[in-house]
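P.,

For your records, the input lines for the assembly:
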Amino acid sequence: MTAVIEVENLTKRYRSTTAVDDVSFRLEENTIYGFLGGNGAGKTTTMSLLTAQNAPTSGSIRVFGERPYENHRVLSRMCFVRESQRYPEDFTPRHSFDAARMFFPRWDEDFAQRLIDDFHVPVHTAIKKLSRGQLSAVGVIIGLAARAEITFFDEPYLGLDAVARSLFYERLLEDYTHSPRTIVLSSHLIDEISDLVERVLLIDDGRLLIDESTDDLRGRAVTLTGNADQVDRFAEGRTLLHRQAMGSVASATVYGALTDAEQAEATAVGLERSSVPLQQLVVHLTKKTRSGHSHSHALAHPTPSSEVHS
Amino acid sequence: MTTATHLTRGPLGSIERTPGATMATGTRILHVVRLQFINRYTFLWVPLLITGAAVLISLAIYAMVGSDDPMYGGAGQAPLWYYLAMGVQAMSLTFPFSQAMSITRREFFLGTALAAAVSSTALAGFYVLLGIVEQATDGYGLNGYISLLPWVWSSGWAGAAALVFMLTMFFFFAGFWAATLYRRSGTMAVTLALVGLAVVLLAVVFGITRMEAWPRVLETFGTMGPFGAAGILACAALVAAAGSWLTLRRAMH
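Structure tokens returned:
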């Protein structure tokens, strides 16, 4: 595969904090990445650095083999609309789309129009009067219709309802199939995007914790369901991510893959194996790193919430 | 030369339009100018509207006052303050948007400067037009003048136009620089810069007073005429523009 972005030892320090801490990774062409991490983990800063909206303290960034800072050849092939994107005074969505059409060489106006209808964006209303969801939709439309070779979506769902969110995922996948490109989806709603992303980058406290294919990551844990005693017998001595029981039936999520022998044994005693929600794994791995591998406390209370909190 | 090679070779023989090739920088700068004018209200209609409104208000006052002597008003400076705000907004709102459009800082700066020049030209043109009307109608039949001030027009319409153009450019870049400084270094930096500027001005005033040079200074200003004043403003605008660029080069989100 061909790398479109190569990052080595990237660090961004502000006066009192280190937002990105010695991070290295590669992004391959025509792949959808999930860029995960809690609030303040360093996601937006990293994306700003990659798109040259910000300059690194140290480390190297290569986009299509070139340094992106003040480099129009590279920049015009990328698109990054941030979650807190600001627009010129009195701009309407229409103004913004007209501008995007000028600057993104692969802009698709018909597609933009379809998305405007899909998301019910009032194109002639001043942007500062839009609801949070409509504002997010403007960013999403620019990101999708620009068809940039590398597109970043920075928590694109903020304020969007469930219907609009699933519409976004649908359109994204459709368009990706039709014109493949590299897409980086930064998100809190891990389970919502887990079917979309082929590879996961997990960042916490400025450090890259995981850079792995979604399938491999899922294989790191397993959920066993069946007779409570059998389940507990299997879970013993393993790291328990989650357990719930109902009468004599229990289900436990344990970290670490089962060996072939263990799998056979589990089947023999009537336990059902199923894959683990990505979110649970991400929460676990984040906590594990934060507590310096002494995770017993954190695991006693698995977070059931739908977001990873920092 | 065959068509095929013609398509792939530029004037200098270099290969052009390779996959993913992008627009030329010049085109992108012109697009930034268009970006600034997408919403024509900001850069065109509002300054003209402010000037127009100031003129109407002045006329109402002239009509109420009524005088046989010519009446001169300072309403012409009204749009200047808007240009200061425009400079601030070009930085604080349009710059972040330009980044989302994947525009380099250099392209944004040059395109925005060009847009400000276009807007200043329009305002200068309007001001000259107003002066011509005032001349033709003897001050709207009221003997009241807003544009046609004797000193401003002492070198003809070109001098007046140059003065208005440079004034607006200076105000625009002053606002732009202040906003850039704020974005890059925060409130403290802007405050310190303004305090520093005040100290410098105070030192100049003190120096002139100390050397009892006021009559000479005033005379110089009186004799240099509108072109001379425009020249000084051009220098000030250039300093503000250069300062803006040096600050913007490393301004971050």
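Two observations worth noting. The first helix of chain A runs from residue 43 to 50. Chain A touches chain B at residues 48, 51-55, 64, 70-73, 75-82, 85-92, 95-96, 98-100, 102-105, 142, 148-149 (CB under 8 Å).

Regards
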